[in-house]
Amino acid sequence: QVQLVESGGGLVQPGGSLRLSCAASGSVFSLYAMSWYRQAPGKQRELVAIISADDNTNYADSVKGRFAISRDNAKNTMYLQMNSLKPEDTAVYYCNAHRTFFRSNFDYWGQGTQVTVSS
Q1: Rounded distance, CA 98 to CA 100, Å?
Q2: Distance CA 6, CA 94 (A)
Q3: How far apart are CA 75 and CA 89, in angstroms?
Q4: Which of 115, 119, 117, 118 has the alpha carbon at shortest distance from 37?
């Protein structure tokens, strides 16, 4: 199993920056694809960014060019650098670890960290 803990959220003004962290434990971190999701009030959870086990990355169109996902396998930690933040980025941000093993899918989630962008 994988245990995930997010941190780094908070209140920031539009145009500001935050860096989120996701600390993992309990399994082989380097074998998992890692991703950030977010969920705003009244909306479905959406994928923000993903980084594969071999460090390939993809981003939602809404954050492309502003956010950067990275991972440090030696520290079992994933990061999301968020720049040029907008009010519509306000949401609870969740860390996810995923892998497929034969016909089984394994998904693990953190508890979330609140990001609020407001003046």
Answers
A1: 7
A2: 7
A3: 27
A4: 115
SS3 74: helix
Burial of 60 (0-12, 13-18, 19+ CB in 10 A): middle
Q: What is the pLDDT of residues 4-33, one digit of tens each?
A: 999 999 999 999 999 999 999 977 888 899
As a whole number of angstroms, the distance between CA 7 and CA 24 comes to 12
Taking residue 14's Cβ as centre, other Cβ atoms within 10 Å add up to 13
In whole angstroms, how large is the CA radius of gyration of the chain? 14
Is the pLDDT confidence value at 3 over 90? yes
Pick from 29, 41, 11, 42: nearest CA to 95: 29
Burial of 32 from C-beta contacts in 10 A (0-12 / 13-18 / 19+): buried
- Beta bridge partners, 72, equal 77
Residue 118 contacts residue 87 (beta carbons within 8 Å): yes
Element (H, E) at 114: strand 113-117
